[in-house]
Prior knowledge:
5-stranded mixed beta sheet; alpha+beta; single chain; 4-stranded antiparallel beta sheet; globular
Amino acid sequence: YEFATIQLTRNGIASFITSNKWLKSNYGETLRNYLFMNSSPIIIIDLGPGVFANTAVDTNILIWQRKKYEGETRTAILRDSISIRDIEWSTITLKLNDLWNIDATQFLPIKNKIEKIKDRLDTLGYELDYGILTGANKTYILNEEQANRLIMLDSKNADIIKPILRGQDLERYSATFNKIYLLCAHNGVKKENIAPIDIENDYPSLLPYFESFGNKFKTRGEQGDKYYNLRNCAYIHKYEKPKIIYADIVQEQGKFFYDEDGYYTNDTAFLITGPKLKYMVGLLNSTAFSFFYKQFYCGSSLGKSGLRFKRDFLLRVPIVLGSSSEIEFIETKVEKIYFMKKVNKAANTFTLENEIDIAVYKLYNLTYDEVLIIDPETPITRET
């Protein structure tokens, strides 16, 4: 793209057909910004999958001109036909440091409205961290039988065998512990005055276990001060504090779970720490939030309905921290949902979740017509 742009004469035009992933990915931001600053993107056509035989690549056509961008780009999406006469055109304004998400062209009024909100999770004091990356799952991730075997060697070993929730164990407002554990031989956190786990002196009965994995384990690249220590994790202390755990990959809607029982996670579930966690888990689980994320901020989707909740993309979504009464209202509903789910995971909490949805629509100052766009089957009325 850069070379073609350089070769163009003034007002010259170029056109490429390539994979469409760069339009909405973090790694594509440099290219998008380059084209925005050095050319005028005239037309973007998202061809989607299946246009070319024997390839599963989703493709796009970009037509651009070597001149100053004047703020208008024609866009179209083709899914079932490649006939020119079937194209329905829209016009959008591309922005610097933004995704080129032409899938959501029809929703731009909603996007423009919510982006007047300046706060994001990080500006409101929330921190997003990854799950534990062990680099050696066969050693550190244990099933119940393996965990019990190590505890039988010495009951003290239970101190560093921690329960794990994975992405597949999570639902909205609930989770199922499937008796998977982390052997948490962490490397400490100096700034928190947390020392590395010392297996030789404090848990000597575990040494033969670690040694059984041989030289390949001992010489692996991802390790701490001692070969049995996990790689550095500066937020290891956060796992035993109240937090939100959320699934990395979901279908249609996010799965955010408020945890105060000290669960750890692996690389398929991440955590959020900060203030007003019960309020925030209600907002993040709302229909509106998943709509905003999917349509405007998530980058590429996974198949027809899959979503990946990446940290950098979550930090793009505008967040409303309501008034004290609005926060209390949502927190009360969330607490009721959690109580019902703890008694019975299959409990019907639709009414409570719908009340949270309505509260979130009001937080974002959405009109009834905008709510219908977000959820055509919403049970609310214009008077609600």
